[in-house]
Amino acid sequence: MMGEAAESTQRAARSTAEWLARSVDSWFGDQPFEDGGRVTNGRFDVSLFHRQDQGASLDVRFDARFRLPNLEKRAYLFIGRDDRREAIQDTPDAASLRRRLLAEERDDRSFLAGLGLSLADSVDLRVGLSARAEPYAQARWRKRWNPTEAQFIELRETLFVTRPDRLGSTTALSYEVRVSPRWTLRWLNAATITEVSRNFEWSSSFGALRFLSGERVVTAEVVFAGDGTRGTGLGYSDAGVLLKWEQPVYKDWLRGEIVAGHFWPRPDAQSERGRAWALGTSLKMQF
């Protein structure tokens, strides 16, 4: 029963995405969509999170990337529903979960759509609109290194322009090392700064991943997040530990996740550091 529902949902998501891609592609020419057109990176996530000091939050996200044959070969269409700030500021996926569990505003979900252009393998240019009809532009650069077969380093730099933020940038640096076939260590740092804000948002985490049979993964992380005021050093407003269990639920494209965490928030320098438990679960579907 569950398998039939999952298969039906995935088929509906893919057929809807392909219908949309064909429709948009037809605006630019008469070449059939089948001649090079495709839908990639499709995802549909449903998550439920609860934190003691913030209450419960239901989160629905989806996005997909469309290659349109009537446009240039490196041009693509993207569309989705996501956290507007995370998408525009290009917050790394690994930090996105922590932002949903850490202190944040949870009502910034928005539909986003636009056109992108890939320049070589490491540069992307994007222009788009949110559901509020707010335009934005991005220039994204990514560089990856493998110093050894067991090590992986990635540096990401994203420049973005929006009406509220004006000019801003996000820098993300991640480092992974495989210490054994079953164990991987990961260190992630991300910082975002904008022209209108005196502070920059930052997050840092160190985690250990244990890979089990059946594509199951257990992750333990120590996380920090906060605002850094320019010229006065860094201060963290939230710290915590996260324990995550992830495994396939149906085939290899539907995965389930359970997350538990404990945090020590401190909203400002005058407040004492508090304590809060957090619990979350999610289903992630690829199509």
Radius of gyration: 20 Å
Order of helix and strand elements from N to C terminus = HEEEHHEEEEEEEEEEE
Determine the strand fraction and express it as a percent band: over 45%
User: Unreliable runs, pLDDT <50, ≥5 residues?
Assistant: 103-107, 230-234
Structural class: mainly beta
In CATH terms, what is the fold-level topology?
A: Porin
**Can you list the strand order of the major beta sheet?**
1-2-3-4-5-6-7-8-9-10-11-12-13-14
Short description:
Helices cover 14% and strands 59% of the residues.
Please give a handful of descriptors for the protein shown.
287 residues, mainly beta, 14 strands, globular
Please provide a written account of the structure.
The longest helix is centred in the first third of the chain and has 24 residues, at 2-25. Mean pLDDT is 84; it is low at 103-107 and 230-234. The protein has one domain (2-286): monomeric porin ompg (Porin, Beta Barrel). The protein is built from three helices and 14 strands. Strands 1-2-3-4-5-6-7-8-9-10-11-12-13-14 form a 14-stranded antiparallel β-barrel. A hairpin with a 4-residue loop joins strand 9 and strand 10 (199-212). By secondary structure, the chain is mainly β. It is globular and about 65 Å long.
